[in-house]
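SAMPLE LOG
Freezer: B-3
Tube label: C17
Construct: single chain, 402 aa
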Amino acid sequence: MDDVMIVGAGPVGLMLAGELALAGLRPIVLDKRPEPSELPKANGLAGQIVELLGHRGLLGDLAEGSGFAGPAPGFPFGQVPLRFAGHDDMPLRLLLIQQPRLERLLTERAARLGAEIRRGHEVLGLAQDEEGVTLELSTGRARARYVVGCDGGHSTVRALAGIGFPGTTDDEVLRLGHFARDEQGPFQAPRVEGLEPGWNRTPAGRLLLTSLRPGVLIAGVRERGTLPGGPVTPDDFRAAVRRVIGRDLPLGEPIWLSGTVAQARLAERYRAGRVFLAGDAAHLFPAGGSALNVGLTEAANLAWKLAAVLLGRVPAGLLDTYEEERRPVAARALAQTRAQAALERAPGQDGDALRALLAEPPADVLLVRPDGYVAWAGTGGLAEAARAWFSAGPAAVRASPA
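STRUCTURE (predicted):
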C-alpha cells in the first residue's frame, strides 16, 4: 500500500507532492489528462506563497524571465486600485508566472525529490476503511493510506467522499483570450475611441484590455448569460465583443480562448476520514488573485502534517488541525473575493461613485483648523498642510467640515 496518493496534477497537487517528497515520503500523483495543460489559466502568484517559495529556495528559478517579481506596487480590489507606493515594508509580494511554466517547474521539483506522476488515470470510484483508501481507476485499482483531492472545482474525489460544496454561481459569463500582436514593447491599448487599458464598462457588460508580456494582448468580455456548449471560438469571442462595446476590435491572432462562470463555494469539510481536499477542490473564489495563494499554502500545511504522522513522529490527531487552520483562511478569502466581485459588478452611477470613493488615496495627515474644518494634504505630511493654511506657500489641499 502506498502512503499518499494525490489526485490532480495542477499546481496544488504538484506542490503537495514536492513537499511530501521533501519530507521523505514517495507520493504518487494521478491525473486523468494524458499530457500537461498548456493553457495559462493563472498568470502569477501573490501573497504568503511567494515568501514560502523563497524559503524553499525555489523563487530564483520561478522568477527567471518573469515580468515582475518583488513587493507589490499596487493591487486591484474589485477594480479599485490599491496603491502601495511609498511603503517600503509592504509585505505583499507578487510573482508573474504563467501556469504552464509553474506546473513544469513544480513537476521537475517533485520528480527530482522522488514523487511519481502518473498521467492518463481517471478516478471512477472511492472506498475507504480503517487502514486506507481504495481508488477505482480507468486503468485499474490503486490503494493508499491517505488520498488528497486536488482535482479542481468539479472534484471527483470530493463528490465520492460525500463532502458538500455549497455556494453560488454567477449569472455572468467571462470569455477570456490571449491574442498575439506585433508590439515589441509593453502593451498599449488599441486606439479605439472610448477604451482604456483595464476594464471598460458599457450598459451591455464589461471589456478587459491588458497585457502581462510584450506581444500578447489579454482580452476579456463579461456579460449576462450562459456559456454555450463546446469550446469558445474566435467568432464567439468577436460576437461577445460586439455585443458589449457595439463594434469590432482588432484583437490579433488568438493564442487560446476560454469561457467560465464564476462561483463562490466552500467545502463543508476539508476531510472525510482518510480523504483530504486542497485547492479548488475545497474552494472556488468569485474574483481573482487569491486561489493559488490559498491552495498552495494549503498544500504546504497538509504535507508536513501527513509526513509527520506517516513517519510515526506524532499522533494521527495532528491531521485534524489541517481543517481547523486552513478552512477559516479560505472562508476569509471567500468573503474578501465576494466583496471584490460585488464592488466590481455594482452598476450605474451608484457603482461608479462607490468605486471612485474607495479609490481615493487615504489621508496621512489630519489637521483641524480653528474654524472646525478638517484639512488633509495627500502624502505631503504635516509640514505641507501647515504651510498651506498658515503661510503663503502653495500646496494642494482639501478641506471638509468637521
